[in-house]
Write a structure and sequence with these properties.
Length: 564
């Protein structure tokens, strides 16, 4: 179904409706998320504070008890008779609100007595004991009034009626509690982590909005658990009501933003139309209008833009054609200049050599020995072959550009082509060429003469730019469909942006003023054109360790392949 562009009036009506709906939806989303987030953080933080308060109360009570016990121990040490000591302790227990009973213990007489355990709790008798050392083999064991301690521990949180606090020993046995609930207590004990962190208030939250914390007091062997009840969570929600105002403010801001955004797009598109009209009035017929096309773009604006651009396109059509023709003429002129420059520079050298050695052989005033004649004729032959290859390269360019190459695809033995090409190139300069292609390499589907021209060009190119006294390697591998031929030499690293231009015509790494190697700059251009004409591809690679590689991919010959 085709999208129908709305008119300005229709869009304004829709924007007005969105201005009501969007703030409502956004407000609900923000209220829901902000309320839960703030509630969860607030309840978790308050649970941590309660755990810290209880920890401080326990430490305060135990420290106070320690001072009293220290005073009692000093007094006991000054009473010579153990009988009198027991009477003194019994009298203290009767008159003390903190301590209910005292015992003098000798570890040597009680096998199960642990001298390292300062606080012990018996869950069956609900007795809490503190043990202090009198001397090497005598300890004072004092029973603490648990009711008094409980009142003091929870004195600061009596108003927290919806909080449940449990203080248990290491085995999970309940010692003290605040707002105890059996079912809730068992659930907390089961869900308590197995490996507890010592002396750090830690959250273990299984219900999203009901955070719980625990504090393991490792030195006295107690665990404080502070639970957040469902009732407390619900009562705290009201604290987030104030954030509703912020949500509505955000909704209002969104409405204002949408209105301004729509006005901006409308203004931008109308301004584009005005700029186009002004440009045409001043004789600029290339000015195109590009409106912002989105849901804010009215149908009228698009209609005007399309009509204006259509008019400009008709006026500008002839100008574009003329520009393209001029571009073609410039390319032809550049090609002609490069061709003249290349021919005048590159063909002069072999012609000079041929003329010089021919004149030498024709001289009658001197006697030339057979060895000198042979060397002279060999050089004339080499330079003639070089001249022939350059002419052949120049003649094949129009065929490549016009896609008029005469390609005769046939079954070709790659090893024979490589050996013939090596023989042709090796006459130019003495250099080691390593041919790593085996006799059992499968035949390929290619034009024999064109493929030999490709290999000769690659070997000539490698011979020009390779470091002195370094070999040129020829490698090949194949899969079920294609053969990959690599010509590898050692040369200077070529950066990627330069490497990508080497397939263009007349491109050389060294320019006219610094030219150190011979050549037309057409080798890789011809290699690429001939390879692609044989349904293959060519790739270049240069590495920072000074390895340059040309990779040719050619189809393998298979029974049933079309030969041309």
């Amino acid at each position: 179904m085709k999208f129908k562009r709305l008119k300005i009036v229709e869009q304004i009506i829709i924007i007005s409706l969105i201005g009501v709906l969007v703030p409502s939806v956004i407000s609900w989303f923000i209220i829901n998320n902000v309320s839960q987030h703030s509630l969860r953080n607030e309840l978790g933080y308050s649970a941590q504070i309660i755990a810290k308060i209880i920890e401080n109360n326990i430490n305060s009570i135990l420290n106070a008890d320690n001072h009293r016990l220290d005073e009692i121990i000093i007094s006991v040490k000054h009473i010579p008779s153990e009988y009198q000591q027991n009477l003194y302790l019994k009298d203290l227990a009767i008159n003390s609100e903190v301590f209910k009973n005292f015992e003098i213990i000798r570890p040597s007489e009680q096998k199960d007595f642990d001298t390292e355990k300062r606080i012990t709790y018996n869950s069956e008798t609900e007795q809490l004991w503190i043990t202090e050392k009198i001397h090497d083999d005598k300890y004072l064991k004092a029973e603490i009034n648990t009711k008094l301690i409980k009142d003091n521990i929870f004195s600061n949180i009596q108003d927290e009626k919806n909080r449940r606090v449990y203080i248990v020993d290491k085995s999970g046995k309940l010692i003290f509690s605040h707002n105890y609930d059996e079912q809730d207590f068992q659930k907390n004990i089961k869900q308590l982590p197995v490996n507890l962190v010592n002396n750090i208030i830690t959250r273990f939250e299984t219900i999203k909005n009901q955070p719980r914390v625990y504090l393991k007091m490792d030195d006295i062997g107690l665990i404080i658990i502070v639970n957040t009840t469902k009732e407390l969570t619900q009562s705290t929600i009201n604290k987030a009501r104030l954030k509703i105002l912020a949500a509505f403010l955000i909704a209002a801001a969104v409405t204002l933003f949408l209105t301004l955004l729509y006005s901006y797009y409308l203004y931008f598109n109308i301004r584009q139309l005005f700029k186009g009209i002004i440009a045409v009035s001043r004789g600029n017929y290339k000015k195109q209008i590009t409106p912002l096309t989105n849901i804010f773009t009215p149908r009228e604006i698009l209609f005007l833009s399309e009509e204006f651009n259509s008019m400009i396109n008709e006026i500008n059509a002839s100008y574009k054609k003329l520009k393209e023709k001029n571009k073609e003429l410039k390319l032809l002129d550049s090609f002609r200049s490069n061709l003249v420059d290349t021919v005048s520079h590159e063909l002069r050298t072999p012609l000079t050599s041929i003329r010089g050695y021919t004149s030498r052989l024709l001289r009658t005033d001197i006697e030339i020995d057979e060895e000198t004649k042979h060397k002279s004729l060999l050089i004339i032959k080499q330079q003639s072959e070089r001249l022939s290859r350059m002419i052949e390269d120049l003649l094949v360019i129009p065929d490549i550009e016009g896609a008029k190459l005469n390609i005769n695809l046939e079954r070709v033995n790659l090893l024979n082509i490589i050996e013939n090409s090596i023989y042709s190139v090796k006459n130019i300069e003495e250099r080691v060429i390593e041919n790593n292609i085996t006799n059992d390499f499968p035949d390929i589907l290619a034009d024999k003469d064109r493929l030999e021209q490709i290999i000769i060009n690659l070997l000539s190119n490698a011979n020009k730019y390779a470091y002195p006294d370094t070999p040129i390697k020829i490698e090949a591998k194949h899969d079920e469909e294609k053969a990959t031929i690599k010509v590898i030499n050692q040369s200077d690293y070529i950066e990627k942006h330069i490497l990508n231009t080497l397939f263009d015509k007349f491109i050389r790494i060294d320019d006219k003023t610094t030219r150190t190697t011979r050549g037309t700059g057409l080798g890789l251009y011809i290699v690429k054109g001939l390879t692609e004409a044989m349904h293959g591809s060519v790739h270049l690679k240069s590495t920072t360790d000074n390895i340059f590689c040309v990779k040719i991919v050619i189809p393998l010959y298979k029974e049933g392949n079309n030969e041309q």
